[in-house]
Amino acid sequence: MEESDEEQIVVVACLLAEEEELEKKVKRKHSIWIHDIFKKRSEHGEYHTLFPDLSNDDIKFFQYFRMSQAKFHYLVDTLKPHLLRQNTKYREAIGPEERLAVCLRYLATGNSFRSLAFSFRMGERTVREIVYSTCEAIIEVLQPIVMPKPSEDTWIESEKGFYEKWNFPNAIAAIDGKHVLIQAPPHSGSNYFCYKKHFSLVLLALVDADKKFIVVDVGAFGKNSDASILRNSSLGKGLQDGTLNIPPRKIPPGGTEPLPHVIIGDEAFPLCTYLMRPYSRDDAQRNEEKKVFNYRLSRARNTVENTFGILAKKFRIFERRLSMHEEHIVTVVMTTCCLHNFLRNDSCHWTENDLNTSMRGLQNLRNVGGNSRTDALAVRDSFKSYFNSEAGSVDWQLRRIRAGMRVNV
């Protein structure tokens, strides 16, 4: 064999070797490594092993998902177009039902993404993506249904509920805000550091007489005062510029003077013509009529306290410090508010102990109030006079306050 032929053979061999190595690299690039634990998801994953048995027990299903089977399947059907994913060459997509199950377990338990990843036999990044995308879908689909922008009819219906259930005419909503505890976001300085010496962002809400959210504003810095939170929120701006479709003044039943429709709150909020807060404790102690007003306001305002209590009881993520980017915290909190409204008429299988509405993970705003305008003081005095008149009083009010009952303000 001539020397030139040998050189050609060597060159061809080198080219073939390079081509073979390139093919190996391409194959390695397209191959996807999956841990053995996750390969057994369909055999040992929590959804595949537990869900079939839960479907045969309504009470256990309710306790696990915080909703009835009817609500769960309605939600799956409604969200399906947003939760469907395409199968790939290398793996089968996780179905809408399983994706919703993962998201609801996160909201219901507050367990970490890593803990849920092991339980459901999924990657931690997969669980995180499922929770965030499912929450976004719930907000997109449910919010226009269960928490639409309030119309005048919304306020009229709410006012009817506050009068019939809580004896407070012309009240269209109760307002309160809570600090949602979070891990300090990186490079955030003291923005989220609240007076409770925790890092937090604020959930501000209006609720109706049936303990449903009407308007929710999420995301204010925890360091801000209550007055600035309300003033700078979309809710506060809507109240100030009159874009929330609140009905005009009307005469309360049996009354003689037209009074504005008002929102009722505690001492954490400023007194306005459209927002009533109680008289100071010192004033109420010296004046029985003011004490009656505080009692009537406190009784109606408990609706918002109970609403937050139910929210924290149903979704245990509020018992933990949320550790994620701010935009995801806002999404998760808004999702729980939408689900709360969606589930208010759901059948309930909780025991008396389960109905405890404590709020360990939601903390009150600071009670600092603010300066009050003369016209706002006059409106509150008019309500006070009405509640102490023959037309506006209730049989038990004097008995309750004279018995030394503590009035929450």
From TrEMBL:
Per the UniProt entry, the signal peptide is none
DDE Tnp4 domain residues: 175-341
Record keywords: Hydrolase, Metal-binding, Nuclease, Nucleus
Q: Among its keywords, does the record have Metal-binding?
A: yes
Provide one Gene Ontology cellular component.
nucleus
Q: Which GO terms describe its molecular function?
A: hydrolase activity; metal ion binding; nuclease activity
Where is this protein primarily located?
nucleus
Query: What cofactor(s) does the depicted protein rely on?
Result: a divalent metal cation
State where the protein is found. Answer: Nucleus
Q: Would I find Hydrolase among this entry's keywords? A: yes
Q: InterPro entries, from UniProt?
A: HARBI1-like (IPR045249), HARBI1_dom (IPR027806)
Task: State the Pfam families in the record.
Answer: DDE_Tnp_4 (PF13359)
Give the family this protein belongs to, as stated in its UniProt record: Belongs to the HARBI1 family.
Provide the protein name.
DDE Tnp4 domain-containing protein
Organism annotation: Loxostege sticticalis
